[in-house]
C-alpha cells in the first residue's frame, strides 16, 4: 500500500483560530486556546496517523511585530514553517485584509509550496460577505486554493483533510505511528497552567508569565508535579497569588482537572510563583525555556 507523509504548517495573524484548527483536525487538544493574542508561543506539532498516511501539523505563533526578544523568538518559529512545509496553510478570518508582516506576505504569495488559504469564522457572516472575502483573497493571493471554514464548529474539516492527503508526497512516516506530538509531557503541563493564567488575568500579567515544570514524577497511581510560575515583577507575583492565595488556588485546581483528563490519571500539582526579572529579553533564560 502506498504511504503518504508530510508537514502541514499553519501560519496567520493572531486570533485567527490556528490552534482550534489543528486541535479539530487531529481530534485532540494539543495547543492551548484563549481569546488573547500571543497565546501560542512555540511551534507545536500535532501528528495524525492512519494506516496509509501521517500528517504532521505544525501550529505556529500568530504573526506580530516583535517588541522584545521573546517575540523575536516566536517569529523565528513562524519563519521556520516555510523551511520544511509540504503543504502550507495560510489562515485568515472574516474581515481580515492582509498579513501583519509584509515580508512574510510576499513570501506566501511567491511560494512554490502547495498553499491552502482557509477563510475562518464564516459562521459569523452571511453568504454574500463570504463570497466578497473569497474574491478579495483570490486577488491578493492568486497562488492559493481557498476554502471557507469554521474551525470552532468543525465545518469543512473533512474537505480540508481530504485535500491535504491529496497534496502529500509519497513517503514513509517521519514519526512512530503511535506518536501524537513532538512535545514532552512537561511541556503540556506548563502550557495548561499558562492557559489558565491567560484566561483569568488581564493586561500585561499573562504576557509576563512563563511556566517551568521543575518535577514530574509518574508513579503507579498518581503523577506528582511541581511547577514554577515566573513573573517579571513582585507586584505581578502578588496579582497571580491573589487575596489569601485564592488566585493561585484557582489556577492550580483548573490545571489539575484538565491534566487529569489529559493523562487519565490522578494528579498532585504544586504551583509556586517566583520573580525572574527581564526574562523576556534574556537570551540565556529564553533558551532554558525552549525558545530559539
List its salient traits.
292 residues; alpha/beta; Rossmann fold; GMP Synthetase, Chain A, domain 3; 2 domains; 6-stranded mixed sheet; 3-stranded mixed sheet; 9 strands; globular
Find the CATH superfamily of the largest domain: P-loop containing nucleotide triphosphate hydrolases
- The total of helices stands at 9
User: Structural class per helix/strand content?
Assistant: alpha/beta
The unreliable regions are none
Mean pLDDT, rounded to whole units?
A: 92
Q: Any guess at the CATH architecture of the largest domain? A: 3-Layer(aba) Sandwich
CATH class assignment of the largest domain? Alpha Beta
Number of strands: 9
Helix content: 25-40%
Straight-line N-to-C gap: 39 Å
Domain unit count: 2
Rg (C-alpha, Å):
20 Å
The string of secondary-structure elements, in order, is: EHEEHEHEHEHHEEHHEH
Portion of residues in beta strands equals: 15-25%
Give the overall shape.
Answer: globular
Main sheet characteristics: 6 strands, mixed
CATH topology of the largest domain: Rossmann fold
Amino acid at each position: 500500500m502506498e504511504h503518504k507523509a508530510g508537514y502541514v504548517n499553519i501560519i496567520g495573524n493572531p486570533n485567527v483560530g490556528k490552534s482550534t484548527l489543528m486541535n479539530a483536525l487531529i481530534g485532540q487538544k494539543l495547543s492551548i486556546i484563549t481569546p488573547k493574542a500571543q497565546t501560542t508561543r512555540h511551534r507545536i506539532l500535532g501528528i495524525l496517523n492512519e494506516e496509509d498516511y501521517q500528517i504532521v501539523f505544525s501550529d505556529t505563533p500568530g504573526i506580530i511585530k516583535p517588541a522584545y526578544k521573546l517575540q523575536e523568538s516566536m517569529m523565528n518559529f513562524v519563519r521556520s514553517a516555510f523551511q520544511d512545509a509540504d503543504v502550507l496553510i495560510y489562515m485568515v478570518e472574516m474581515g481580515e485584509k492582509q498579513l501583519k508582516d509584509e515580508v512574510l506576505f510576499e513570501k506566501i504569495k511567491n511560494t512554490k509550496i502547495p498553499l491552502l488559504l482557509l477563510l475562518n469564522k464564516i459562521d459569523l457572516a452571511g453568504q454574500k460577505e463570504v463570497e466578497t472575502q473569497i474574491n478579495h483573497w483570490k486577488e491578493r493571493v492568486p497562488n492559493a486554493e481557498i476554502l471557507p471554514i469554521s474551525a470552532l464548529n468543525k465545518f469543512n474539516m473533512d474537505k480540508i483533510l481530504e485535500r491535504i492527503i491529496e497534496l502529500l508526497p509519497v513517503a514513509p512516516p517521519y514519526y512512530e505511528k503511535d506518536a501524537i506530538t513532538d512535545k514532552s509531557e512537561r511541556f503540556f503541563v506548563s502550557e495548561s497552567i499558562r492557559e489558565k493564567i491567560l484566561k483569568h488575568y488581564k493586561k500585561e500579567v499573562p504576557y509576563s508569565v512563563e511556566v517551568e515544570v521543575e518535577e514530574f514524577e509518574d508513579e503507579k497511581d498518581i503523577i506528582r508535579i511541581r511547577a514554577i510560575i515566573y513573573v517579571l515583577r513582585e507586584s505581578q507575583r502578588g496579582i497571580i497569588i491573589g487575596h489569601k492565595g485564592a488566585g493561585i488556588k484557582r489556577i492550580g485546581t483548573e490545571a489539575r482537572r484538565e491534566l487529569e483528563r489529559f493523562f487519565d490519571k490522578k494528579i498532585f500539582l504544586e504551583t509556586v510563583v517566583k520573580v525572574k526579572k527581564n526574562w523576556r529579553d534574556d537570551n540565556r533564560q529564553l533558551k532554558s525555556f525552549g525558545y530559539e
